[in-house]
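To fix ideas, we reproduce below a protein record of this kind.
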Amino acid sequence: MSTNGKKGKKQGVAVLIQLALLLLLCACGDRGAAGYRQITQDEALQMMEEQTGYLIVDVRRPDEFARRHIPGAINVPDETIGSEMPEALPDREQVLLLYCRSGNRSKQAARKLADMGYTNVYEFGGINTWPGETVAEPEEAAPDPNDEPAPDEDSPAEPSEAALDYLVLVDKNHPLPEGWEDEIRLERFTNAVGDEVRVEKTAYEAYLGLKEDLAGQGVYVDLDSAFRSVAEQQAMLEDFTARYGEAYAGTYVAQPGTSEHHTGLALDLFLIVDGRIVYENEDLMRYPEIWARIHALLPDCGFILRYPGGNGYPYEPWHIRYVGPDAAREMAERGLTLEEYLAASP
């Protein structure tokens, strides 16, 4: 008896099964492991333009949201999303479009929401590459000076962030401005080697954004040092002299009172490569490709490479300086150092 008929039926059933599996894979292939869907920013923009009933969710910190966000977005910080439904997201079937700064936190939030049973979660990356419109929270109107209560003479005035000049020049020819340490607001944290690091508040927030963006590219950094008092600078100079010699110390370490680290705006980075801390200067110099990737992201976070070489100090790939995003982007576009930028400014 011929078996061609049975063979044909078996082949037909096999084809149908393969087609069904293919359709299933196509339907699920663009979803994250936890059930959310990752889309491009162009796709997200198209959904916002053509659809209704969706909710744009910014999962960054409130201060980041206030500075810049997508119009119509609500702020549900990733760190506030636990195992309970967020009050701001009462409908598990509503279309949710999630973003953060670079795409790391939004993926984490998307996974958590999908695990809680949200069925229409779409993640589209970070606002730092968003092609559409963005807005900022309106600032509160300044109070009428005539309505201000008299200051309490027994209470010291709070340092004012607005009083700081983020373009301040401090070097061997320009000492730290008088009263700077009275105005600066410092954040403190402990780095990966157990050292306490102090950073000016705005510069620290910018550093966290830079660190997140780099982690999204598989590059991991930490802070070696930032703010340093005059006494600490003296101790550092003596340490470098003992370890590397007077000539090296005189080249790489500023004299006390003339270091940018007194501002809290100058940051020295170190690397974490394949889980190993790379800390010493001579070892850090062995990773030019990693430093190139770091330097490429500096301007959008408000930083410049302070000593690219040729401006009175040798090349230091780890030494970055916060000047604010607008100034940093302009310096990068025009290829200017801080000194050159200040000299060219009216």
